[in-house]
Design goal:
single chain; alpha+beta; six-stranded antiparallel sheet; 6 strands
Length: 491
């Protein structure tokens, strides 16, 4: 382990890996606002945003309709578990590739890990009493020791493979003789070093098939499903000519332990292959993408730097997502779509929803997109009593206000102290009021920092913005007891 960590220091640790895993798992579980948390997590990564939109628009999800333009609607269609799995796979691949790009075996090992997660999710979904989220995470990390050894100790890994071939030992036993530790021991040691959850660490060990007289406890069940998912992934990515027979043997060996039927397990493996192919995560023996999927790849938007040239069209597409979802989505989901539409459509530096809390007589920032803005939320609070500033003026008149040059000395007296202290680098900003029964309940705020090119809101963009706020208010009005806690406070 000392040698391993010295190599990690030389080549670079997986930057922020445990932090990213924790953020994604938190967004998958979440609370009232889990869809919003997942949307925010996805939007922080342009590559992940592209993958999510492409998957949502693929033929696999065509039953939900084509033309999904916002991550927030994709989250509703795909579910937080599916997107969390996609995010974990992408982060794992990116992180380990960056740390060990010279390893010829790196990509193959990561592909097996991602595919194992797909298989585990499908199997766990068949066992309805079990937690699919934990099964995915544990299965993707099940071969962590093997990956770490392959990437950072390539010379020792070669010795392990030679010893395995010479003696007939499996790789874990060969590693124990050559390295002094089994691959599962190394995986658990790395997981502890990164501070991953203890429940995950304990499952990072192979569980051989065995007859069971009673159902496995949760930890052993996770270890079993992680083991069989990883072994199925190895078979699927091999050049073996007897893949079907070996998969059937694995399913037969583990079905009783997992409380599943053999047919359920084989069906889960088949579905997992197709899902992996749709995400381009793993090279497995599945049909090529359909023409519809290829079109979805081409249609995926490129994240803009500053305001995009087709801002009005982007806003209109986002509003269309909101309109399609208004009869089935919660007010929180509609609000998330609105916030994302404004953020992505206008290329803002940050976008924030302020909502009025009548109990505290304040407007409080509740939801946000943009780099660094989450840390600013505690500062973004102000009283609802009228003050002669631009925010109260917009709310009192129920009209959008756009300030093109917020740093103009002649205008600076019209912005409040809290705004100047929290957002000193803003060049331009917009206030879009939200009014219910002639009473202001909040507003959507968006701005462009001075680091971005100077921009302004054009006439063609006003109509979709007005329709957007109409849809938000209609959603709040129709749902007097919406799901998120922030919405309950304003109604």
């Amino acid at each position: 382990m000392e040698l391993l960590w010295s190599r990690v220091r030389q080549r670079g640790d997986l930057p922020g890996f445990s932090k990213v895993v924790s953020a994604i798992i938190g967004a998958m579980r979440g609370d009232d606002d889990r869809e919003f948390n997942m949307t925010r997590t996805v939007l922080q990564d342009p590559a992940l945003t592209q993958k999510v939109l492409r998957l949502a628009n693929s033929a696999m999800y065509s039953v939900f309709g084509q033309g999904i333009n916002t991550v927030s609607k994709a989250v509703i269609v795909l579910g937080t578990e599916a997107i969390g799995h996609l995010a974990l796979g992408l982060k794992l691949v990116d992180g380990l590739s960056a740390a060990s790009s010279e390893s010829a075996n790196a990509r193959a090992e990561m592909e097996k890990s991602v595919l194992a997660g797909h298989i585990a999710r499908q199997m766990a979904s068949s066992a309805s009493t079990r937690d699919a989220e934990e099964a995915v995470v544990c299965s993707m990390l099940h071969s962590l020791g093997r990956m770490m050894t392959t990437f950072y100790l390539a010379d020792r890994w070669q010795l392990v493979q030679e010893h395995s071939a010479r003696t007939g030992l499996d790789e874990n036993a060969a590693a124990r003789e050559i390295l002094g530790l089994g691959l599962d021991d190394i995986g658990r040691g790395a997981a502890r070093q990164w501070g991953l959850p203890g429940a995950v660490v304990e499952t990072l060990q192979d569980m051989p098939p065995k007859p069971v007289g009673e159902p496995l406890d949760h930890k052993d069940w996770l270890a079993a499903i992680s083991t069989v998912s990883s072994r199925c992934a190895v078979v699927l990515t091999s050049e073996d000519s007897e893949i079907d027979a070996k998969l059937a043997e694995l399913a037969s060996s583990y079905a009783d332990m997992l409380g599943l039927e053999v047919e359920q397990m084989l069906s889960a493996v088949d579905t997992a292959q197709k899902t992996a192919a749709n995400e381009d995560a793993v090279v497995v023996r599945v049909p090529r993408r359909s023409a519809d999927d290829a079109k979805a790849v081409e249609a995926a938007p490129v994240p803009p730097v500053g305001k995009p040239a087709d801002a009005a069209a982007r806003l209109a597409r986002g509003v269309n997502d909101m309109r399609d979802a208004q009869h089935s989505a919660s007010s929180g989901q509609i609000m998330t779509m609105a916030l994302e539409t404004v953020y992505q459509g206008l290329g803002f530096s940050r976008t924030i929803v302020f909502l009025r809390n009548q109990e505290q007589s304040q407007y409080i920032a509740n939801m946000c997109f943009g780099d660094g803005v989450q840390e600013l939320l505690p500062q973004l609070v102000f009283g609802d009593a009228y003050q002669p500033d631009v925010f109260h003026a917009s709310l009192a008149n129920d009209k959008m206000i756009f300030v093109e040059n917020a740093q103009n000395p002649t205008f600076i007296s019209k912005v409040p102290r809290w705004w100047k202290d929290a957002l000193p680098t803003v060049r331009s900003f917009m206030v879009l009021p939200l009014t219910l029964n002639r009473h202001p309940v909040g507003f959507i705020y968006g701005d462009w920092d001075m680091a971005k090119p100077a921009s302004r809101i054009e006439q063609a963009e006003i109509a979709p913005l007005n329709e957007l706020r109409t849809l938000v208010m209609r959603s709040l009005e129709q749902r007097r007891q919406p799901e998120p806690t922030w919405a309950r406070r304003i109604l």
